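Record type: monomer structure entry
Structure origin: computed from sequence
Chain ID: A
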Amino acid sequence: MADIVAGKKVGLKENFLSLRTALGFAVAVVIIYIFLRNFPLGEALASIATAKWPFLALALAVFYISLPLRGARWGFLLRPAEVEVSTSSLSHYYFLSWFANAVLPARIGDIYRAYLLKKNEDVPISLSFGVIFSERVFDLAITASLVVLSGSYFWGVIKGTDESRYLLWGIVATVSIILMFIAGAFFLPRLTRLAPQAWRPSLERFRGGIFRWPSLLPIAILMTLGVWLTEALRLYLVFLAFDLKVGFLAAVFISQAALILISIPLSPAGLGLVELLMFKLLSSADISLTTAGAVTLSDRLISYWSLVIFGGISYILSPRIR
C-alpha cells in the first residue's frame, strides 16, 4: 500500500468523481431525507437568526484553534522517529486532510495526509502510516473514554435505538483497534522477520512510526485530550448561543459520540448520521424540536460546512504539492 501511494498521485479530484464517493453521498442523502421528515427546518432557521452570534463566532474560532493543536501533536509523534517538520506546515497538511475527509468517504484524508508529507517533506509513506495509526489509536481511546465517562447523561435515552447500536459498534471497533495496536507493538518485530524480504523495509519504517515510548505517554495523552475537549467546548458554546442550560457534560457526550459515528466510513465525515444523532439526543433532553434543530444545524455549519468552504479555498490556493 505504501508503495502504491508513494508512486502515484492521491488526487482528490479523481477520488471525488469515483463510484465510492457517489455511494457515500447517496447514503448521506438517504439519511438526511429520513432526518428532514421530522425536522422543523423553517422554525430552526428562524431560531438561528435570533441566536447570540458572539458565541457562535467563538465556537467557530475554537474549532479552528484545534488545528494547530493537532499539528503540534502530529509533530510530537513524529519527533521520536527523527522527523522534524514545522507545526505550521503540519497544521496545513492536517487542514487539507480534513477537507478530504469532508468530501470523500472512508476517511481517505489520513492516507492523503501521509501522501502530502511524502511529497512535500520526503517522509516515507510507511513511517507516516505508523505515526498516523498511533495517532488514531490515541484519538479513539480518548474519545471512547469520554463517551463512557459522560454516557450516563444520555445512555438511557438512546438505549435500544439504531443510534445506540451504531455507537456500540463504534466502541467495539475502537477497542479492537487499541488491542491491535498493542499486539502490533509487541509482535511486529517478529512478523517483520517472517515477512518476505521485499516487504521488510516498509514494515521496519512502519514500526519506526508506531508510538512505543512510555515516558512520553502522559504528554501524548494530554495533547490528545486537549484536542478532543475543544470539540466539546465548541458544542457547548453553541448551546450558550441558544441559552441552553444542559451543561458541559452533555456537550462532551454528544460531541464524542458524533466523533465515533464519523469513524464509521458510511458517508463523508458522518454526513447525515451525525445530524440524526445530535437531533435525537437534544430533542430527548427536554429541548424543543425547534431549538434542537437550530443547535444541530449551527454546529454542523461550523464543523462540516465551514470546513468544506474554507478547506476548498485552502486546497485551491495551497502552494504545496497536493
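Annotation 1: The two ends are 19 Å apart (CA to CA).
Annotation 2: Residues 1-6 have pLDDT under 50 and may be disordered.
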